[in-house]
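#dry-run=false #mode=assembly
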Amino acid sequence: MKPIIEFKDFSWKYKASKDLVLKSINLKIYRNEFIGIMGPTGAGKSTLCSCMNGLIPLRSRGWIKGTVEVSGMDTQKEKMADLGKKVGLVFQDPEAQFVMMTVEDEIAIGLETLCLNREEIRERIDWALKLVGLEGYGNKAPDELSGGQKQRIAIASIMAMRPEILILDEPTSDLDPDGKREIFELLESIRNEFQLTIILVSHETKKIFQFCNRVVILEEGEIKFNGETSQLVQNEVLFKEIGLYYPIDTLNYIQTLENSKCDESQNTPIIEISNLYYTYPNQTEALKNINLKVFHNEFLAIIGKNGSGKTTLIKHFNGLFKPQKGIVRLKNKPITEYSISKISQIIGYCYQNPDHQLFKNTIREEIEYGLKNLKFSNDEIEKRHDEIVDLLDLKKFEEIYKSTFYLSKGVRQRLALASVLVLKPEILIIDEPTTGQDYRMIEEFMKILEELHSHTCTVIIVTHDPRVIAKYSRSVIILDDGELIGKFPTKEFLKDKELQKIAAYTPP
Amino acid sequence: MVKIHPVTKLALVFILSVISLVLPNILDVIYLLLFDFILIILTKVPIFSKGFRKAIIAFLLANLSIFIAWFFFSHESGNITIFEVNIVLIKDKWIWHILITDQTIYKAANISLRAITMFFLMLFMFVSISDRDLIHGLRSIKFPFSVCLVISMTFRGLSMFQQEYFVVKEAMMTRGVEFEKTSIPKKIKNFISIFIVLIILMFKRTEEMSASIEARGIPLRQKKRTVYHYYPMKMRDYLIIFLLISFFIYSIYLRIVGGSFLYSIIGLFM
Amino acid sequence: MSEMKEVKPGVTWQHLVVTALATGDAALLAIYAVIIAPVAPFPGVSGLYLAAAIYVPLSLWLGMWGCIAGYFSCVILGFVSTPFGAVSFIWSLADLVEGLIPLVAFRIFKADVDIGKDLKRKNELYILLAILVANLIVAAFATALVIPILWLITLIIAIILIVIMYFLNPSKSWLLYVIFGIFGAALGSALIGIAVPIAFGFGSWDAFWIGVIGWFAGDLIVLSAIATPMMVYLTGKIKETSIYVEGWFS
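#status=ok
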């Protein structure tokens, strides 16, 4: 049987990269397969996907060797327009894929390229929206859609073009558990109905095991495993070797927590919120009557569906948002009485996207930035810099990389954490620390947080990741549609299916 | 209001804006301004709403600068001198000498009225043409698709950039940066930091958005391409454009020979 | 690597998308600049035109696409923050020229746009640049007030400063950047930016030099204080992306 995609001794190096990103790849993919592609961050998964639809080399600068053929077409010789009719590619970030102003227009622009008549385009738009369960959404703007809906529209706009091959590059990393579930259910249904060849890049090992018939594992640009899923399922050793997540029973998580120490010092709240309301300028009521206490040395997870108000709540913790109604107290004093510089010394905040909080050219400058703003002495700056670089293992990156621009996402995330931790905050707030990270990086990152917690730091994480919630948090706060459902010890939460449903939590 | 093509509306605004600059007689400009108000009323522009009031006030303040420019930095001789004073003398030469005459006021008012006329035409355009209509309208008249998509993405870019600015500014605040109580050199330094981050984010967004377009096989240039949202031009659109172009040509003629558009029309009937 | 062949794509959607996003970004910056530091009597003129800090780097990084982004961002500014209306299409040539002058210079002289590469004596160069900017502002006054002797003195000082800079950092890129990317860009855009509104009656020719000095000085400060560190910091990184334009359009 002739493969539908074939890599023949294919290598690729970007202009900016030091080394080959893909090394002598030989891979055949056959019609109607559902392939899972896994690997640690930086393994070359996204690059591999981009080679399959011609993005590499038709729009990227670099060096190439070997060939990639898709449905008999050499990707170096064909036009992207022709390849685009055969291969659809859905990316990780649902926001960046929307280029038009409404859903209907978004689906139509690809169909117009096919020179279909207006009637046919109309039919295909309706069909595609029905396929993804979003009938009637044609006139919606991107801002009106959730992440899961945007991703479904991205799939709809590709499916409307009736490709033979559908490639999805980490389509669910930015989504909450409900959104993830929607996407995987959709993929299963369309694969069965349309006999599509689907190639899925994901860190969701359980889902890969569940849906894919073959798995390809990449590491450092090379194929480490290429075989049936059933062969891989029992191969825990390979997963550990490469640093990928191997699914374990939820029961093990609960058992781990049963054995852990409960939080002490429950008497003095470090943050206290009373009757908090917040409405955005566009009249969206983000928080309704929140009453909450966070105690010293807690390890707390804030969970809930997308749009439940989690980020709005944590921005009240550190004074970025001023309460419109109600009071926020930090260490028994209203937060409005603190200056920005004082708050930044008590509360550290890490953003989901590290690029939003890296301002300087070098690692050293970045770490020292906050300290210089707060006018610490040179000796103290030097001392703290050395401490944090050791703690977060950044020394080797400081020596190798002249600029933060060249760091991988995982290291940038670590640097963002370092730049916040160097101020020695009593409370650390982290927004979605595990998005797009591989298992090994998540484990390393969470170990650092565990260590901080053991040194009396209060850790607050906003997360959808069930592994993080189950394995690390000691208590959870559940938000739903701007309302506080409650604060619960994690071990209780993990046993309560009703609460898990409200929180859109799926056990690991 | 009678539905006219978005491109016709665009032509109306653009051509009338140019005509408002070309017409020699100020009375004609006043009548054009009255026509503006009729358009505003017909399209139900909510000029008394909070947002529009702010825009109008901001514009009038900008317009005030025209008067300042003429009052403080011109030397138009006229029949009546209203105000005159010498301000700065360097080496026996007055380098700043304020002279306000009736001609100064006339010239300032003249250009100011034209600016007001153009402003209300813009208001009409912003309210009556949505960005989506604009793009579909342009495509209907075979404007290149890639240019239309670029216009669409410019609108997206405006809102994305604004959001990211606030996120990055907040991130700096969490690292102890004060934005309010700080000196101007420090403000500039803080601004540069935000700026650099935003430029990097802009390049990253570019890669993502362009990959999304190319992944759908949309070429830069395509000889034949369906226009899904097709707004056909109707007879009234062609008529309006014809009248506009005629008006424009006649305005140029009047500019050259001198005279008034209104009086020449009245003359035709008398 | 020797068996591998280099791939250099031509104009792609990346160039158009970056033009669109840069236009939006620059437009917002321009509007913000005009609000925080207006130069009466000229509407649309800012004493601290922050958007200029992006025009020159964009044109050097993106070629003509950067110039186009600068042009259209100014058109948007013209419609939103000034009374110029349709005149904005002509007025915005000032900002097109601001990017075009350094771009043409770098292309004609075949210079590397990475002014930060192997940059020597950075602190001394910045100090000299600040003195040069102050000197050029004095030269602008000398021109406006027609004081030939002062003008000559400032010209001699400018030449001396540029020569010293070249000795400290013998780089063709740096030299071209200072002459065309700062001075040339600011002067070209100031002359057009003030002449156009006056020609259409938005001011009097008596105010021409006041307007030019305000625009010129503002741009000099922004280009030297903001655009220069951006160029030094970012150019090397942007050159490694596939968006970077080596020629005019690709």
